[in-house]
Amino acid sequence: MAYDADCIFCKIIQNEIPSTVVYEDDVVKAFLDLTQATPGHTLVVPKTHVPDIFAYDAELAAQVFSRIPKIARAIKASDPAIIGMNIINNNGKVASQSVFHSHFHLIPRYQATEGFGMTFADNSAAYTSEKLQAVAAKISAQLQTD
């Protein structure tokens, strides 16, 4: 497995830095985020050092992503007050990624307003059907090359 000696998550995976582990196997390590946006806020981290989603190959993606529902269900089952969950993966500094080892935030939701939220601006007026089709065509063309 790839390891980056300067990466805090690689150090956590190697137990060089302590963490509060909720799940671990040969592919991922899941541990409580120190910030605890809400109680149970867990990070799921692949044991292979990959900086972001763009560095995954199909096999690693399948292995990592297949574990997320299992961990999410365990978090939800751990507290009957949990009524929802955000699963967040930031990629790149501009997208608020702060540790450049891919990771997924599983953030339990207990109520609609609890100091954490996600909202998106409604830009639908700026996108005609033709403009949406043009954006989709550019993306689809790139999928043909993979």
TrEMBL record:
Gene3D superfamilies, per the entry: HIT-like (3.30.428.10)
PROSITE patterns in alphabetical order: HIT_1, HIT_2
Cross-referenced Pfam families: HIT
Source taxon at top rank: Bacteria
Motif (Histidine triad motif): 101-105
GO molecular function: methyltransferase activity
Keywords annotated in UniProt: Methyltransferase, Transferase
SUPFAM superfamilies linked to this entry: HIT-like
InterPro entries for this protein: Histidine_triad_CS, Histidine_triad_HIT, HIT-like, HIT-like_sf
Record EC number: 2.1.1.-
Residues of the HIT domain: 8-116
GO biological process: methylation
Cross-referenced PANTHER family: ADENOSINE 5'-MONOPHOSPHORAMIDASE HNT1, HIT FAMILY PROTEIN 1
Name the UniProt record assigns to this protein: HIT family protein
